[in-house]
Specification:
single chain; alpha/beta; 3-stranded antiparallel beta sheet; 8-stranded parallel beta sheet; binds (4S)-2,6-dioxohexahydropyrimidine-4-carboxylic acid; TIM Barrel; binds zinc ion; 15 strands; globular
């Protein structure tokens, strides 16, 4: 009798933090997400950034056209949930337009200079963006936060913890009803803050921060494909993240932060930050949850907690993973270029069925 692999079926998951880019890159990568996820929060850090509802509408159409041109039944239902890029000059009435559009689900805060394409970001959140924050609180529009200070005096590995004290706590004291998502949480400090803070707060966690600590950046040499921001942290932090993701709090949910950069942009004297995880996203998360002995918690983290926070229905479809060893390719085509997926050349114990 042929051997039947062990399978895991969950309600279809969503990705609450995704970079799709635009043009040929968008076309090349969107299927990787659309084959697994029902919806994804689409990050607005294009060049130039998506700062208005009108720009988000156009970007959304380009994403939907890219999905339609895949001509794959398994990807067809994918819904991009759009976001706006907050600047020092975002007018408060943009928030009402965004809310009324029905397709903008958040506004992203990039502290100016914190990461890829963040130069148009915010220089002083409470000083410059008060009117917008007040409008967001009033309209129930979530603020999605890249939570790192940019102060060069602060050690790179401490920038999330310092952000909590300097920005997050004052922000949430000033706007206690504002919905906040602490994106790509990477520290024990962050887990503790999000677990205990009053009011509407949640956090996304990437697969790479669940699977790796900062040793991965230097394993046998310098490993640019493990470099992202916020950077991987110590093992104690990874363990705290894994406990949060697999635990009972509904405040933690899946956000891959999959960020495609061409191979050459990562392998150079000043390589870009970002890990490409979209192709194997659910297999990576299943591997992390299985390692913690908590596969039973994957569905809540991947498919239930995010919709509950965003006030959206859960997906009706299901997704099945098979326990079968699967090799991660050394590279994947991406337009005229190639992207190196995270953990290229290694193997994972899970794959998507079908
Ligand atoms: O590693 C990262 N890459 N972190 C970010 O915050 C942005 C992202 C990107 O857009 O490449
Ligand atoms: Zn991101």
């Amino acid at each position: 009798m042929p051997h039947t692999p062990r399978t895991l079926t969950i309600r279809q998951p969503d990705d609450w933090h995704l970079h799709l880019r635009d043009g040929a890159v968008l076309q090349a990568v969107v299927g990787d997400s659309a084959r697994q996820f029902g919806r994804a929060i689409i990050m607005p850090n294009l060049k130039p950034p998506v700062t208005t509802t009108a720009q988000a509408a156009e970007y959304r159409e380009r994403i939907l056209a890219a999905v339609a041109s895949l001509d794959e039944a398994g990807a067809a239902g994918f819904q991009p949930l759009m976001t706006l890029y907050l600047t020092d000059h975002t007018p408060p009435d943009e928030i009402q337009r965004a809310r009324e559009s029905g397709f903008v689900h958040g506004v992203k805060l990039y502290p100016a200079g914190a990461t890829t394409h963040s130069d148009a970001g915010v220089t002083d959140l409470l000083g410059r963006c008060g009117g917008v924050l007040e409008a967001m609180q009033r309209h129930g529009m979530p603020l999605l936060v890249h939570g790192e200070v940019t102060d060069p005096e602060v050690d790179l590995f401490d920038r999330e913890a310092v952000f909590i004290e300097r920005v997050m706590v004052p922000l949430r004291e000033a706007y206690p009803e504002l919905k906040v998502v602490f994106e790509h949480l990477t520290t024990r400090d962050g887990v503790q803050y999000v677990s205990e803070a009053p009011g509407p707060i949640a956090a996304t966690i990437t697969a790479h921060h669940l699977l790796y600590n900062r040793n991965a950046l230097f394993k046998g040499g310098l490993r640019p494909h493990w470099y992202c921001l916020p950077v991987l942290k110590r093992e104690t932090h990874r363990r705290a993240l894994l406990e949060a993701a697999t635990g009972d709090s509904p405040r933690f949910f899946l956000g891959t932060d999959s960020a495609p950069h061409p191979r050459g942009a990562k392998e150079q004297d000043c390589g870009c930050a970002g890990c490409y995880t979209a192709r194997h996203a659910m297999a990576l998360y299943a591997t992390a949850f299985e390692g913690a002995g908590r596969l039973d918690r994957l569905e809540a983290f991947a498919s239930l907690n995010g919709p509950a926070f965003y006030g959206l229905p859960v997906n009706t479809a299901t997704l099945t993973l098979e326990h079968v060893d699967t090799d991660i390719p050394h590279e994947l085509p991406m337009g005229d270029d190639v992207v190196v997926p995270l953990a290229a050349g290694e193997s994972l114990p899970w794959r998507l069925q079908g």
